[in-house]
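Task 17 of the worksheet. Students: predict the tertiary structure of the chain below and write it out as structure tokens. Keep your answer in the requested format; marks are given for formatting as well as content.
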Amino acid sequence: MAKSANYIAQEVEDKWYSYWMKHDFFHSEVDDREPYTIVIPPPNVTGILHMGHMLNNTIQDVLIRRARLKGFNACWVPGTDHASIATEAKVVARLKEQGIDKADLTREEFLKHAWDWTEEYGGVILDQLKKLGASCDWERTKFTLDPAMSKQVIASFVDLYNKGLIYRGYRMVNWDPEAKTTLSDEEVNYVEKQGNLYYIEYKIEGSSETLTIATTRPETIFGDTAICINPNDERFTYLKGKKAIVPICDRVIPIIEDTYVDVAFGTGCLKVTPAHDENDKMLGDKHKLEVIDIFNDDASLNSFGLHYQGKDRFVVRKEVTKELEELGALVKTEQHLNKVGTSERTKAVIEPRLSDQWFLKMQDLVKPAIKAVLEDGDVVLHPKKFENTYRHWLSNIRDWNISRQLWWGQQIPAYFYGDGKEDFVVAETLEKAVLLAQEKTGKNDLKTEDLNQDSDALDTWFSSWLWPMSVFDGLNDPENKEFKYYYPTNDLVTGPDILFFWVARMIIAGYEYTGKRPFKNVYFTGLVRDKQRRKMSKSLGNSPDALKLIDDYSADGVRVGLLLSAPAGNDLMFDESLCQQGRGFSNKIWNAFKLTQSWEKDISIAQPEASRIALAWYASKLQQTLVEIEDHYEKYRISDALMSTYKLVWDDFCGWLLEIVKPAYQAPIDINTYDAVISIFEDNLRILHPFMPFLTEELWHTIADRTPEEALIINHWPKTKTIDTTLLNDFTFATEVVSGVRTIRKEKNIAFKDSIELMVLNQENRTGSLDTIIVKLGNISEMKNVDAAVDGALTFRVKSNEYFIPMEGAINVEEEILKLEEELKYTRGFLRSVQGKLKNEKFVSGAPEQVVVNEKKKEADALAKIETIEASLLSLK
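Model answer:
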């Protein structure tokens, strides 16, 4: 047996992670065992480890390590996402620092810079996950832009296009002027912002009449192509058939009529800007209005903005307001609370914009996904409350805008051969596109140089929605043995914020391409917040450095700290004291083992009865806890599973078992008890391992020199045995008696080294079978039954039994009398103070009702305490 040393977490963690990697314990190959598969929610390739990643990946690691111990062929596939918008933004920013403008580069030149960035930063977060103990199958690491992964994404696009589900349309889209790309509706967050309502006066052509329009966006007047009134609004009958003049630009526009106009909002007149508002676009189409786009792709004004050309929209808003005021066209300004769309990724204010984009029809695609979750239970969401969100999103789904005006990503496989909107073909490769174009046009002389590929890239989510299939090459080769073995996967652990972006879409894709679910269970973690309930973020400066936490508290300590208060779907209020508690638990386990190693073993002495009973009790307690733990895991209550394990080890093993079997000072322990304790300790390590992998593996090899084949990570879960419920109940009763004895010892300052006598009245619920436990833990010199109450003794009750400790010899009577008299004096003074308040009519009538109630309770408690102290003094005198 190896000799135990002080526990130095950093050394231990580096040692055992290297050991696990060296012996390929994380790697999985197809065999005859039942598989257990998890695919990682791929973090952004640009990312670094934050608290959300820590929580999410700790839970995944707990599940995968437990699966290994349960005998499954456990496979956890890691990887990263190319994150089109985020990564391109970072590359563009770095190029700008180098004095390079993206617009001056070819696509190939820009992509070289992007790949350089990825090579430099791409593996950072995965390396950081190793510090946490993540036991991913690193040999299977995927990147969403790997050639095999991209091939599947392109194949998916072509397939869906050929099925008539993907189409190209000129639509109003959400434009992110910072990222300079379109976004899907789900990538737009609506935020309430305080703005203004501007009342602008328009002249009526050929008369001195005017009309006033209220708008939140005066800068868009340059795109006005009509004024709309409600035909039923009698206030504006005089305007019918007339034309208005737009201030500043002096454009003459028609006044149209439509019941769409809300007569109660603003002035009842609506300026129509078809290029910059979805509803205005519908009005424009209906009334065949001109469409004038006034913005550049960065939301600065173009030439239609006249002397404001090149200026930012928000700068123009202020300057236009001032000019309108100078022209006498600004009637008034009012404050107005408005919901403003912002980019989920860049936080920029979204600009509605007309654009040619690619869309995926969703109405039919979602039907199997709705059925799987909400009707059949084929996919289960944990907690169940997220079904409502899932139902709402999928029941109100719109066609998915899958194209992005970016270069970093899978380039859309559409090839244009002419100037018309329909002059394109869709194919996996340029060579196939040429053949399709020749077939479509009848021009057999078309060559590759005659075709131009669409410059847009696909939405990153269109790549990652294939993730559980694509990591096993499922779309390239559906019959490959790995895909058939590992898919469908078992569990997915992710955040509720991407339920629609990713989870729902993976379910949709799974049924579309395989007819099967992509995973059985989805465990939603909560958001990690600070003590003030604020979401952790770099901008708030409230997010701790994840790696520093590991350095300070150990990986095991941080894992335990995160999970102790991380119930599924509920936010975690993070506090570093949780990690301190986790580190404290590590120290408790380590010191418990060191205690066992300090005992001298003797093969010649018999096993004490107290030890025999305690070992039998703990065996049943362990089995009872295993049943609890299994139930918690089954219901994805990972925090509860840890808490059950924590209590078993801290309270039952360290607090009770070791105290009972511990030999007297400088006395040896019998070998049977020692061996049983070590065997129990090993079972504890098995159920602790998923939560605390490093400490448990270190102790496992410290207990005995073991071969790699005997490593804890690939050992087995504790075996199921019978539970002696009678013994468990009797032991609980005995511990309550011991607690009563300990309480009196503490209150009366009776040292544990001083033995005491214990008398018991009323034997109804006492078998006496565990008296040896009580005698040892209470240092009882004699324990006997009595027929009546013992006068002048200290007493406590456990259920219907009353226990007495004779004071003679147990306490110093004179010291106890002085202590009680001092306590009585203090309590009487406190009572006078409280009663003084209650006799004060001004206080009673003026104070809040609850304050008066609290004071009355203090009075009652003080009276009761005085009565108890006086009774104790009477018994002593």
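Marker's comment: The longest strand covers residues 188-204. The chain is about 45% helix and 20% strand.
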